[in-house]
Amino acid sequence: MTTTYDIHIIGGGLAGSEAAWQLAQAGVRVKLSEMRGSGDMTPAHQTDGLAELVCSNSFRSDDAERNAVGLLHSEMRALNSLIMAMADKHQLPAGSALAVDRDAFSESVTRALADHPNITVVRERVDTLPTDTPAIVATGPLTAPSLADAIGATTGADALAFFDAIAPIVHAESIDMDIAWKQSRWDKAGPAGDGKDYINCPLDRDQYHAFHAALMAGEKAEFREWENVPYFDGCMPIEVMAERGVETLRFGPMKGVGLDDPRTGRWPYACVQLRQDNASATLWNMVGFQTKLKYGEQVRIFRTIPGLENAEFARLGGLHRNTFIRSPVLLDPTLRLKARPNLRFAGQITGCEGYVESSAIGLIAGRFAAAELAGRELPAPPVETALGALLAHITGGAEADSYQPMNVNFGLFPPIEGRTKKADRKLMYTARARTAFSDWHAAAG
Hints:
By secondary structure, the protein is an alpha+beta fold. The protein is built from twelve helices and 17 strands. The strands form four sheets. It has a six-stranded mixed beta sheet with strand order 6-2-1-7-17-16, with helices on one face. Strands 10-11-12-13-9-14 form a six-stranded antiparallel beta sheet. Strands 3-5-4 form a three-stranded antiparallel beta sheet. The longest helix is centred in the last third of the chain and has 23 residues, at about 420-445.
């Protein structure tokens, strides 16, 4: 193990882990500080593993032809991403999505970083920002209060905040498979699956409306100290979605289209899907069921879902506050803090949203830092690429006053010129992105 370092990375989540790997692979000596394992813990984490997946176990779509996040997957793989390599190694059946065994994934990332000769992992809470040493702050949306205060004092701007929610996980043996069945929507199979990657629990019209009414009436946890903090749409609690209208859930996480109930041969009126959460298939998470219901209410209400009447929960849902900085104002195009260029920010604290996006920004932050330490300049990836579009949004593509957490999506890309058929547009975005990425990667090295 090294005893000195060239750069300090604060935070061992997805972004910090990826940044450390990219730097170490470039020959840079890295100190990686993670407070979990030192006696400190966040409100959402359950282990001291690096790159722990807190909310879902899904990296979302792996379709690089028609989906922006799938395109980002492919770009990260081309850049030798540790996060993507370990996600691929521990992939679970999930249709066209990339889902992973969360424990095996975190253990593999932790081991890879701990074993790297250029990385020293230190279990410690960092309360202040380095003044002179090059550093990447990747503490994520659950930054310790002391460091959050230091960041606020340094940036001179209040952090924005939003709620993030966690979905429940169910023991497979407690699911009634005489009612539920296994099928991917439209029988679509991914690399690790067979077209039967989800467990489906069907609801008829009366059952759905009774469930909706129970959600509306269920007792919710209160967070008075977080009043007026907005929800992020990608992780909105299911009961908050239910408040938007009786039919909202049927066109969201509870849609039944493309699922053939073997008992009726028809699509159900509504359907709850569960996705495999570990390699042994003993745990399944309720897709889209992030919630702020109190624990007792979760058990009572979710057991009204057909097939889950006797469900045993390995983990119940929860809610926590996430914070992020006003990156378009504070950061330069290479993620450096304008007021303190020795500091870079990466991951969800910059305002990107999602496992993949957080990892991707950690990756490019690490590469920017490695280039700078080597005395050269790394050009930013083109905005026509998924990585470049996401980076541009964070560092200046959004209005500061309305800046909100954002998943990668084709709306961040420059529009396709000329008139195009809607059905062809996604393919045109990805084809253009592959060309731009290939040219940039060849030139950047």
